[in-house]
Design goal:
The complex is a heterodimer of chains A (250) and B (337).
Chain A lengths: L4 E10 L2 E11 L4 E5 L6 H9 L6 E6 L2 E2 L5 H6 L2 E3 L12 H12 L14 H13 L15 H14 L4 E5 L7 H12 L6 E5 L3 H7 L2 E6 L2 E6 L1 H6 L1 H7 L7
Parallel strand pairs in A: 3-8, 3-9, 6-7, 7-8
Antiparallel strand pairs in A: 1-2, 1-4, 4-5, 9-10
Helix pairs in contact in A: 3-4, 3-5, 4-5, 5-6
Chain B lengths: L2 H14 L4 H16 L4 H21 L10 H16 L6 H23 L4 H21 L1 H4 L5 E2 L17 H22 L2 H11 L1 H6 L4 H27 L1 E2 L6 H14 L6 H19 L4 H14 L3 H4 L21
Helix pairs in contact in B: 2-8, 3-8, 3-11, 3-12, 3-13, 4-5, 4-6, 4-11, 5-11, 8-11, 9-11, 12-13, 13-14
Classes of the chains: A alpha/beta (250), B mainly alpha (337).
Chain lengths: 250, 337
């Protein structure tokens, strides 16, 4: 059985800087994988490469065994490879209802329908309700996204990805900037992700990482530095060295 | 589980697209003008045509975020196709000729979309401007086909649908132009409330995220660009048919600028902006040029500068009564349907 997501010797250079250095990751189906590393280690670059927002200088990307290296981002999303963004990428003047409706319509093949009104299909509405309900967004679903509190926007950021019904989900620092009071709702939503969805989590918050992941990859200077179970990684002296600031960036 | 919520959301989504009283009033007034203002029909025909043209620009600028300085390319192309069809006696019936002109312009839009959809706003301005200039020179050169600088004239129009003969006072021409504009408006209204229309707005707001949730940006933008080009072509064809004249002026830069101004005056992104802007623009033009025939451009320019400086406030409050899903202010969110 093929891996849910696999990168083979992925490389990306920016004017002499190696942002991704021969990254080979294998993530099995249903896994909870965390990707950690110091600032500038190339974590977001890797997400951009995997989702097609950046083109790799070399290497391949496989989604369930299928080579998607040359597919555009929208095609990858339709194949079930979906991401969230470290900095919210939402539709400021749309409401959460419209935002989720957009993704659901698209996924159910109604996205190019120019004749029917949005939500005319009951299947679409049912799916919208499920997602809004699951992420506690029904109370703000008629508000414009730009007026929502940050925590709610963060939830919408993830809800929008879930509405695409991903097979592989890449979460880029989902808890970043969420105030303590709104954090619980977000963490609960992440913990409740369907078990068959493969998740690759990028996060600085180590409590979240160790509570969530069944396996951790440590990225340093664009390369996979250490990989193992949370216990193995926690005990690895090299990881400690990286995190407590011993050179390596030099 | 949550059936009441499902029903409420379905209801809410349906209500988004419901006709508001102000919209119905708008079209009733337009209909009334057919009967009540016979002396104005020649001018109102120009208003309807500019309104349709501005609606076309709104589809790409207001809803998809594609700026164009050369939208007259499609307007003029449609005008010439209609003119040639009539002058050569290829298609006598105006309505059929109108459809053919619109389709031809849409095809041109589709064919040139790959040039326009790459790059930033600035490149789009340049490319659209360039395309209109190229078309202008082609029309200027192909004298045997287009009449060159003299334009195409002297063609007689057959009665619309074989029944309604164009009259010198422009009554039939106005009813015909208004009816076509209304039908195309209905289609555009349908389109913007559809999933396709929503996806256009998402592309305008955040193309990166739209692609990340599986919306194919290019395909959607090519589609709306072609549709808008078709609308512009129909507007141009209406002008050629109602004036029985197709000239280089239909491809002129000034026409691209006028339509952009009309749309800006009325406000982009809520579908009525082009129509309201066309009424304001044409009436202003008519009135000022009546007062000072030589220098109307000066006064028009001054009024435009003032409108932009004052923030278009006088016209924008009209939006409160129109469909509220677009570009709306917080006020429009109160009292959801």
């Amino acid at each position: 059985m093929p891996m849910a997501l696999e990168t083979v010797g992925l490389e990306r250079h920016f004017e002499g800087i190696v942002a991704a250095n021969h990254v080979s990751l294998s993530v099995e189906k249903g896994a909870r994988r965390a990707l950690i590393g110091p600032n500038g280690a190339g974590k977001t670059t890797l997400v951009n490469l995997i989702t097609g927002m950046l083109r790799p200088s070399a290497g391949r990307i496989l989604l369930e065994g299928e080579d998607i290296t040359d597919q555009p981002p929208d095609q990858r999303a339709r194949l079930g490879l979906v991401r969230t963004f470290q900095i919210n990428q939402l539709f400021a003047s749309l409401t959460p209802l419209e935002t989720i409706g957009l993704a659901v319509s698209e996924r159910l093949g109604a996205g190019a329908d120019w004749w029917r009104i949005v939500g005319r299909k009951s299947e679409v509405v049912q799916n919208i309700v499920d997602v809004l309900d699951r992420f506690h967004l029904t109370d703000v679903m008629y508000e414009r996204t730009m007026t929502l509190p940050y925590g709610k926007q963060r939830l919408l950021e993830i809800a929008l990805a879930i509405a695409c019904r991903p097979r592989v989900l890449l979460l880029d620092e989902p808890a970043a900037g969420v105030p303590e009071s709104e954090r619980h709702e977000l963490l609960a939503a992440i913990a409740a992700l369907p078990a068959d969805v493969t998740v690759l989590l990028i996060e600085h918050d180590m409590d979240l990482v160790f509570a969530f992941a069944d396996r951790i990859s440590v990225l340093v200077n664009g390369a996979v530095f250490v990989e193992g179970t949370p216990d193995e990684v926690a005990r690895d002296p090299r990881v400690k060295a990286v995190y407590f600031g011993d050179d390596l960036d030099a | 589980m949550s059936t009441p919520l499902t029903a409420e959301i379905a209801h809410h989504l349906a209500a988004r697209a419901r006709w508001r009283p102000a919209e119905i009033a708008f079209w009733l007034i337009a209909l009334a003008s057919v009967i009540a203002l016979p002396g104005w029909h020649l001018l109102l025909t120009q208003v309807a045509i500019l309104g349709l043209f501005a609606l076309s620009l709104d589809l790409i600028l207001g809803f998809a975020g594609i700026i164009s300085l050369g939208h007259a390319a499609f307007f003029g192309f449609g005008a010439y196709v209609a003119g040639i069809l009539a002058a050569r006696g290829l298609v006598a019936e105006p309505m059929l000729a109108l459809v053919i002109s619109g389709v031809a312009a849409a095809l041109l839009g589709w064919a040139t979309s790959f040039l326009v959809l790459r790059g930033s706003d600035l490149t789009r301005l340049m490319v659209t401007l360039g395309l209109a200039l190229v078309l202008y020179e082609i029309a200027n050169r192909l004298v045997w086909l287009t009449g060159g600088a003299d334009g195409l004239s002297g063609f007689a129009m057959a009665p619309v649908l074989g029944w309604f003969d164009f009259d010198i006072a422009g009554h039939v021409g106005y009813a015909y132009s208004l009816a076509v504009t209304f039908v195309l408006f209905l289609l555009a209204r349908r389109l913007i409330f559809s999933p396709f229309g929503l996806s256009l707005r998402s592309l305008k707001e955040n193309a990166l995220r739209a692609a990340a949730i599986g919306i194919p940006p290019r395909r959607r933008l090519v589609a709306i660009y072609a549709v808008a080009a078709g609308y512009a072509g129909v507007a141009g064809a209406l002008l050629a048919q109602t004036t029985q004249f197709a000239s280089l002026a239909t491809l002129d830069f000034e026409r691209s600028a006028d339509v952009l101004l009309a749309l800006i005056i009325g406000g982009a992104g809520y579908l009525y902006g082009g129509l309201i802007g066309a009424v304001a623009f044409k009436l202003m033009q008519e009135w000022i040029s009546g007062v000072t025939p030589q220098y109307w451009g000066f006064w028009l320019g001054l009024v435009l500068v003032l409108i932009v400086l004052v923030g278009r406030a006088p016209l924008q409050y009209v939006r409160a009564f129109l469909p509220r899903s677009h570009l709306a202010s917080a006020a429009l969110r109160s009292g959801r349907g």
